[in-house]
Specification:
The chain is mostly helical. Helix content is about 55%, strand content about 0%. The protein is built from eleven helices and no strands. Helix 3 packs antiparallel against helix 4, helix 4 packs across helix 6 and helix 6 runs antiparallel to helix 7. The longest helix is centred in the middle third of the chain and has 31 residues.
C-alpha cells in the first residue's frame, strides 16, 4: 500500500510541475501589487496647412495663358512638333515642288542612311499632322498644300519599308541550304549576264546580290569581316562582270574568250583587279591588261590559304590610298 506521506509528496511535485509549465507560456494577470504602467503623452497631429491667418489676401481674375507669360526652354522636346518654333507655316514655306524618293534611289542607300531618312520623314509628318489639325479645327478647311506634302512624305516612308523588306527577303534566301544557294547564284548569274546592257538596274541588282549572299558592301570602308565567304563572293562578282561586259565590247571578249579560253578567273589577285574597277568598258579593259601581266608571272599567284589575308591587305590599301 502507498502511504499518505508518499501521496502528498507526489501531489506537491505535480503541482510544481504544472505551475512551472504555465508560468513559462502565459502572461500573468495584473494585481494590485503590480507596478504601474508607463503613461505616454499624447502628441497632437500637425496640421497640413498653417492655422495662422494670412493678411492681405484678395481674389483676382484668372490670367489667360499666352506666349508672353509662359516660359518654355529651347530644348523642350515638344518643339520638335513645330517648324522653327512657328505656330503654323505659310504656304510659301512648304516645299511644294519636291517629290517622293523612288525605290531605285532608296536601294542605293545603306541601312544607316535609310534609318536616318525614315526618322527625318517621321519628324516632318509630326509637324504636318499638328498643322493640318489646326487648319481643320480653326479654319474648317482641308489645307490641301499641307496634305499633299504629307502624302509625299508618307509615300517615301512606305518605299523605305519596301526596300528593307526586299533586303530581308534576300538575306533569308541567302541563308538557305547550300544546294538551294548554288541554284540561286546560278539563276541570278543567267539573269544578270543576259540583261540589257544599257540599263543600270542590273548593276544595282549585282550590288544587292553580293551583299545578300556574300556580305560584300559596296562602300569599301564598311567591309569589316573578311572571311572565305567574302573571298568566294569576290571571285563570283569579278567573273560575272567579265562575262557581262564581254558581250558588250569586242576587246573585252578578246581578252576573256580568246586569250583566257572563256575560263573563269580563280586567282584572288586577278579577281580583285576586275572586282575593284569601275563597271564600264574603259576601266575593265585597263583591268584586263593588269590581269594579263599577272598571268604572265605564275610566281605571283596567291595560295588559297593566304587569300583571306591578301584581300584584307588589298582593302586596307584602298581605304588608306587618297582619292585622286
Amino acid at each position: 500500500m502507498i502511504s499518505l506521506k508518499q501521496t502528498s509528496v507526489s501531489l506537491v511535485r505535480r503541482a510544481n510541475t504544472v505551475r512551472s509549465f504555465h508560468h513559462s507560456t502565459t502572461v500573468l494577470a495584473r494585481t494590485k501589487y503590480s507596478p504601474p504602467r508607463e503613461v505616454k503623452e499624447k502628441v497632437a497631429p500637425k496640421p497640413l496647412f498653417p492655422l495662422k491667418p494670412t493678411q492681405g489676401l484678395e481674389v483676382t481674375e484668372a490670367i489667360p495663358p499666352t506666349r508672353h507669360n509662359i516660359e518654355c526652354p529651347d530644348t523642350h522636346p515638344l518643339w520638335q512638333f513645330f517648324h522653327d518654333k512657328q505656330f503654323i507655316r505659310s504656304t510659301e514655306q512648304l516645299d511644294t515642288t519636291s517629290r517622293s524618293w523612288s525605290i531605285p534611289e532608296l536601294r542605293r542607300k545603306s541601312f544607316n542612311d535609310l534609318h536616318s531618312l525614315w526618322y527625318n520623314c517621321l519628324r516632318e509628318r509630326n509637324k504636318l499632322a499638328r498643322e493640318i489639325h489646326l487648319i481643320r479645327a480653326g479654319l474648317h478647311t482641308e489645307g490641301d498644300h499641307f496634305v499633299a506634302v504629307d502624302e509625299r512624305v508618307r509615300t517615301t516612308m512606305w518605299r523605305i519599308r519596301h526596300v528593307l523588306s526586299e533586303r530581308d527577303h534576300a538575306f533569308t534566301k541567302a541563308s538557305v541550304h547550300s544546294a538551294d544557294r548554288d541554284e540561286l547564284i546560278k539563276s541570278f548569274s543567267n539573269k544578270f549576264i543576259n540583261s540589257s546592257a544599257d540599263s543600270e538596274e542590273p548593276w544595282e541588282q549585282l550590288k544587292r546580290f553580293q551583299w545578300a549572299l556574300f556580305g560584300i558592301n559596296e562602300i569599301i570602308e564598311d567591309n569589316k569581316v573578311i572571311d572565305p565567304k567574302f573571298v568566294e563572293g569576290l571571285k563570283c562578282v569579278a567573273n560575272l562582270k567579265l562575262q557581262k561586259l564581254s558581250q558588250v565590247d569586242p576587246q573585252i571578249k578578246e581578252w576573256y574568250v580568246t586569250k583566257w579560253g572563256n575560263q573563269p578567273l580563280t586567282d584572288i589577285a586577278q579577281c580583285f583587279v576586275i572586282f575593284s574597277c569601275e563597271n564600264d568598258v574603259k576601266a575593265t579593259l585597263e583591268a584586263c591588261s593588269v590581269v594579263e601581266d599577272l598571268k604572265a608571272e605564275p610566281a605571283r599567284l596567291i595560295p588559297k590559304e593566304e587569300e583571306v589575308k591578301t584581300v584584307e591587305s588589298y582593302i586596307n590599301q584602298l581605304i588608306t590610298t587618297p582619292a585622286e
